[in-house]
Structure formats: C-alpha cells, structure tokens
Amino acid sequence: MKVGLFIPCYVDQFYPNAAIATLQLLEKFGVEVTYPLSQTCCGQPMANSGYEHLTKGCNELFIKNFESFDYIVAPSGSCVLHVREHLHDAANEEAATVLRHKVYELTSFLTDILQVKELNARFPHRVGMHQSCHGQRGLKLSQMSELVAEPFSKPGSLLKMVKDLDLIELGRTDECCGFGGTFCVTEEAVSAKMGKDRVADHLHHGAEYITGVDMSCLMHMEGILKRAGSKVKVIHIAEILNAE
Q1: Which of 72, 87, 108, 243 is nearest to 163 (CA)?
Q2: What does the alpha-carbon distance between residue 2 and residue 4 come to, in Å, rounded to a whole number?
Q3: Any alpha helices (H) in 87-229, and if so which ranges?
Q4: Which of 77, 180, 196, 206 is the most exposed, having the fewest neighbouring CB atoms within 10 Å of its CB?
Q5: What is the pLDDT of residues 28-41, one digit of tens each?
Q6: Contact in structure between 141 and 77 (CB atoms under 8 Å)
Q7: What are the pLDDT digits (tens) for 179-229?
Q8: What is the spatial distance between Cα 119 and Cα 87, in angstroms, rounded to a whole number?
Q9: Could you give all domains of the chain from N- to C-terminal order, each with its CATH number?
Q10: Can you give the residue ranges of the Cysteine-rich domain (predicted)?
Q11: Cα 64 → chain centroid
C-alpha cells in the first residue's frame, strides 16, 4: 500500500508536529508513506471565499503530486473535504475523479481502510474532543446529535484505545467552534464568541487537553485559551494516537 502524505499548508507552517505524528503513526502500521515535496495549498481558502475559479493551479498540482498513490491521507478534515468535493481539472477530469475517491482524513483511514483495532499508545491526561464541522457533517466521521440514530465517532473510537486517557463527556458534543476559515476574519466578533462558548464547555468538564482532527479549529481555540491565560493545551489527535 503506497500512501501520499497530504499536509495542509497551515499545518506545515505552524504545527509540524501534527504532520510528523501522522507520518510516524502510518509507518507504525506498515504503510509505505511518501511526502511529495512540491505540494502546496489545496485551494480551500480561495474556494471558501467564492473564488473557486482561482484554484485551477492548485488542482493541477495536486493531481500531479498524488495521482500515482493508492491512497492520499491528511491530518485535516476540512482540506480532505475540499479535495473530495472541489477537485476538478478540465484537461484531466478522469484523474481528478479518481483522486477525489482516494483521499482520506487520518482517523477515517485508520478505521475504515486499515481497520485498526488496537493502539500501542499512552496519554495519561483528561481530554476533550472537538468534533469539527467539516469532519462530522461532510466526511461523516461522527454522528450528528440532532439525528435519531445510533451515535458513533471514528476519532472517539481511536481515542478510547489509548491507555490511561480520560475522554470527557461534553455538554454539546458537536457544536461549531466558530473558526470557519475566512469566516473568523470577516465575522470576527461572532467567531470569537462561538469559540469562547466551545472552549467553555471543555473547561467546565475539566479538560487538560482539547483534541480534534482539524488543527485549524484547534488553532482558533488555542488563541482563545492563551488570551484567557488558561493552562489547557490543544493537540492534534495524531499526536495522541502516536504518544508512547
């Protein structure tokens, strides 16, 4: 199995430990992983702002970088969802279609493709898990609370395999953190208030760490925690699943 490691630009620039943990975790399960050095932004910021027509170069480069792999894995639900729904290339649409079905968010790849049943990981802390909107509602990583259906959570099932980890129950399990990409710039006040509410739920239940599958959401909450002088930290789920 050959996997192309797709690392979002903000993870590469600000949270490289999440990328390194993703690589190491995949290699622990015997996956042959390659990181294409010429990869850049997937184009999500432009598309989300209404300028999808400007992502042509991003799409062409993504196809060039990843078309030879069996799977593409990324530690970011939002970027994976963007590729799945918006990767197009008029000159090579067949390749784009194939790639849209080969790209996976990390926890989905671990549960659905590798079918991981146990982890050799230990993280002795009280942890709150943020269900990011793109992952939950777009990639179906967990059940939406408004549905009368059996609850499930792919990230949650993996965290429960980690030794000594105390996974807390939140009051509102799938509430948006308010980040929303460019939304946090264009609607700063609303975004900040939503973030404060989301953080408050974790703090109320005694979280030492807040984790999730999207470092962008965690980055937003990290800023709120730091401004409040909180000792609570954020950490990408890959770093917990890779902890020993």
Answers
A1: 243
A2: 7
A3: 93-100, 106-108, 133, 154-159, 183-186, 188-204, 215-227
A4: 206
A5: 999 999 999 999 99
A6: yes
A7: 888 888 888 999 999 999 999 999 999 999 999 999 999 999 999 999 999
A8: 33
A9: 2-113 (no CATH), 126-241 (3.40.50)
A10: 3-83, 127-221
A11: 23
